[in-house]
């Protein structure tokens, strides 16, 4: 609003205002990170705090007496009386301000541990999130939680505001350290556009004006970033989805379908299909109060008139016939639980998605995510503020798109049938991504089945002749840092130099390639071993010796691996280096991260490791020299007739 | 059009239309509260847009305290007639209400009986299950957390702890018999947005919003217009002719005027841009106690 004075011509001003864009963002941070101060500062610096409001706050500040007579800008932000009495913010509050370029809607989300649901609520409509970090404390557990929810809700732009830079001597080093720590962590989340800004909300540095205290920071100020971040392309203009909201039939001559364009562009004359009835028609006109328009795009609210009298009602979806969504009774979703009463699998609920309201149940809870550590854990129910991956089954099919691709078509709320409360919110997942498949993927995954599926023209006997060896798989199991990979690669070198055909399958490589879609639950670890042994079997069938370096902590999973490869050509090597030695080595910093809970249930730290009783060889790398271990491995292979 | 982007006002407009349609689709018997002010005027325009070329599928309800400005009442009647809108006007005719006088009762009591109770009477009498209101979240800080769908129990009570989370544009309109919701389609609009929209859309508003020479008295630091001869004057009060306008409209004995020369909407916007006080300052009701709006809300006032 500051620009008003500079624009003497009010008509020009109004014309310009009427072209302004809208940006919705949320602010998240721990209590006392300075969220309220930051918002107060934004409103103050854009002159949206009136004198009477300021006077009221001044009175409140004095009464409260926490700021020693100084005005406490954060008081402007408080709403409900009950909360004010407790001195905390416990619900999402919405604030408004604008500059000459944009109008801003702030969803002010409380920082308290137990309020995941409020953050999800605030985030659901936002284009951007500001995550506050106190420069003195750096990345905290709550920072991780906030970031996770932001990524879960599909917010495409994230600004990490490192606040209270004045209290760390405006130090570039501190800033860079926190920045890289954050980026390190954020790579594990799906986050599009990430910016990091050093601030002092209290003093106003880098809020509106560039800081004079931090000349080393060359980036944009927070406000400038908010004004210019490009959000237009965040919308999906490709897949036409028009959920019919209301049928407008004022008289016999007019029948229009009212709704808001969720995605894509609808044009007069377009051929359309109605989902789920699959009837076809054409768009006769797009009606608005101002007259008909040639096309409509998100988020326009229009009325569609079709050429033909076909059956369309609330809950129907208009799409282009060559681009239709999935219509199904089942889908997988990430679910945020919001009610005191826990989510119970198989309990009947109501599900509202777009303009459909359908009864349904959660038929399966695949796992729960600990929002603080991102750890996936097995669970039988979701309590308030918990997040889990579920399969939802409805009483009738509806049209859905993955949330990542289409916010409107991929979002739903869960309503309790008795209390009518909104108890959950979900984001539909892309069904093509297989994540954490059940251990049952092992079923039928045998050497015989593999052979039957691929009758090869080149026989195994021919290969054995050519390579002068019998193919075999060696599984090195043991703690992280035990020396599995080192042994596998050393053995590979020895065998290769001796003219053998050999390959290593390393767990770390698996994680980065074939198994990059997997997490770290028990089921996911099992699936990773299954995939690795599948590759080993393929190599064996091609005549090669396969050396697998995998943690494979579970005895049951190892015996499945033995079966899948074929017991006659499987060797188990237990790399039995003691845990304290492994932890002291911590070559990859993995134990440090595991201790922070970042890696899920971690064998040796927070999950068991079943030491094998059926190992063909035991190696302790803390007491035995590498060359000697390799000698013993070669002897083992020879004794099993791999080569002579 | 080729950039497929909407201005902030068009986005707000689309969002409000979506909300208005959603309620009409999901509720059996909605009503739109019409206070005759600028926000109501904008809300009704949005509703007309939502159902064009059809008529509004619900009536308007005005709670008349009988102490509204005369210009408001004539504007209301002309407006309803022009648009062929069904308008219900309700006044609390209970003996208690009949005995009440705004000045002697004070704004708190007056609002409770003539607005809150009257509104509840009307909602009950017609069995409305949803009532649209023109309140905005930027009006007052206790409103910052208000939902778009504000849930009320069988006694029309609002419980801050019992409001439903609202995500995306998925509103939960499930209620049991006797329960109802208040709906605020203008939640995300600011005072400035409203005036800009009035300007853009050329929406007629009550002339009281524009400056004119009017008879006023100074009372408790406010300029009160002597709208008719029912206003008892204190011995030391003199009626002065001043160039004034109103920023908000209500019962005239409680509504402060401001000195102004703004005679057009752009003038008003220009004045707002340099204003140093917020909109609600002109309302006696908020001065009573801190957090008073919240109290009113719990009791059923909007
Ligand atoms: N020195 C300094 N103090 C700050 C800064 N931002 C906020 N604070 C102080 O940190 C405390 C908590 O701030 P507040 O905004 O209430 O935090 P919230 O809980 O995140 O809303 C207050 O005492 C603020 O004055 C800053 O940039 N520098």
Estimated structural class of chain B? alpha/beta
Structural class of chain A: alpha/beta
Beta strand % of chain B: 15-25%
Q: Give the biggest beta sheet of chain B.
A: 6 strands, mixed
- Oligomer class: heterodimer
Percent of residues in helices of chain A comes to: 25-40%
- The average pLDDT score of chain B comes to 88
Average pLDDT over all residues of chain A: 87
> What Rg of chain A, in angstroms, do the CA atoms define?
30 Å
Question: What is the CA-atom radius of gyration of chain B, in angstroms?
Answer: 19 Å
Distance between the termini of chain A: 86 Å
Note the overall shape of chain B: globular
Order of helices and strands of chain B: HEHEHEHHEEEHEEEEHH
Low-confidence stretches of chain A: 1-7, 79-89, 433-439
Distance between the termini of chain B: 39 Å
Query: What's the story with the biggest beta sheet of chain A?
Result: 8 strands, antiparallel
What does this structure look like?
The complex is a heterodimer of chains A (644) and B (302). Chain A is an alpha/beta fold. Helix content of chain A is 28%, strand content 26%. In chain A, strand 5, helix 8 and strand 6 form a beta-alpha-beta unit. Chain A is globular and about 95 Å long. The model of chain A is unreliable at 1-7, 79-89 and 433-439 (pLDDT under 50). Chain B has 302 residues and is of the alpha/beta class. Chain B is 34% helix and 15% strand. Chain B contains eight helices and ten strands. Chain B has helices at residues 8-26, 38-51, 70-83, 95-98, 102-126, 191-201, 265-273, 292-299; strands at 30-33, 60-63, 87-90, 130-132, 149-152, 180-183, 212-219, 222-225, 240-246, 256-259. Chain B has a six-stranded mixed beta sheet with strand order 3-2-1-4-6-5. A four-stranded antiparallel barrel of chain B has the order 7-8-10-9. The complex binds guanosine-5'-diphosphate. Guanosine-5'-diphosphate is lined by residues 29, 31-37, 74, 111, 163-164, 166-167, 200-202 of chain A.
